[in-house]
């Protein structure tokens, strides 16, 4: 069974370390805020100028002026700071974010990412993704393994315009958790109930498979 969006967020949350400053991109990455493990203290950063995002609000807590980069309402945790987007991007460009979690359309075996546009389709802009992939060294990309037409999104070479080159080192899809190194995808974990053969069939790029691939856990 493919992972749900919530399960993907739960798995990414296991990569958080105490004291991390973390930027969460639009989409699945924003859900990570709801699954921060107990005993872990992290500061979530939003490119629009909020450091210290909390979980999503209840109906009683909603403040329309407190939003993340995806225009979703959020809460602020104790110790949070609010500042201009210029200062927020200075933090990103200066390499002061310990972990970045982004979505993507395509990722290839050399760590290239395409996430900001599909030619011929209307777009609002590139957002902060180009700054994030240029300024961060520790990036996890979350995405579906294949398109709705069954075409792989893990490629030998990206077809869409690049957001960044050689910058992605880990990918979590709805089928697998993979590391990118030495010009290949290295399979580390598989979603519960998903076979290695299914992952192989939906990975167009070079895939390195160890003798044993454990199923993911979310604790």
From TrEMBL:
Protein keywords: Transferase
InterPro entries given in the database record: 3-oxoacid_CoA-transf_B (IPR012791), CoA_trans_fam_I (IPR004165), CoA_transf_AS (IPR004164), NagB/RpiA_transferase-like (IPR037171)
GO molecular function: CoA-transferase activity
Family per similarity comment: Belongs to the 3-oxoacid CoA-transferase subunit B family.
Name under which the protein is recorded: 3-oxoacid CoA-transferase subunit B
Originating species: Halomonas alimentaria
């Amino acid at each position: 069974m493919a992972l749900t969006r919530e399960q993907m967020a739960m798995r990414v949350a296991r990569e958080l370390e105490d004291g991390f400053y973390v930027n969460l991109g639009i989409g699945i990455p924003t859900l990570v805020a709801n699954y921060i493990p107990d005993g872990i203290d992290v500061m979530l950063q939003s490119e629009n100028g909020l450091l210290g995002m909390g979980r999503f609000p209840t109906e009683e807590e909603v403040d329309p002026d407190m939003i993340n980069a995806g225009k979703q309402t959020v809460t602020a945790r104790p110790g949070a700071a609010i500042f201009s987007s210029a200062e927020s991007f200075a933090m990103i460009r200066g390499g002061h974010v310990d972990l970045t979690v982004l979505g993507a359309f395509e990722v290839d075996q050399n760590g290239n990412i395409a996430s900001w546009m599909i030619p011929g389709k209307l777009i609002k802009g590139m957002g902060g993704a180009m700054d994030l992939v240029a300024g961060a060294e520790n990036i996890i990309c979350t995405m579906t393994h294949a398109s709705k037409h069954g075409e792989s999104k893990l490629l030998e070479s990206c077809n869409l315009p690049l957001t960044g080159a050689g910058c992605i080192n880990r990918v979590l899809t709805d089928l697998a958790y993979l590391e990118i190194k030495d010009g290949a995808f290295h399979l580390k974990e598989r979603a519960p109930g998903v076979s290695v053969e299914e992952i192989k069939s939906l990975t167009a790029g070079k895939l390195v498979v160890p003798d044993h691939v454990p199923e993911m856990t979310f604790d």
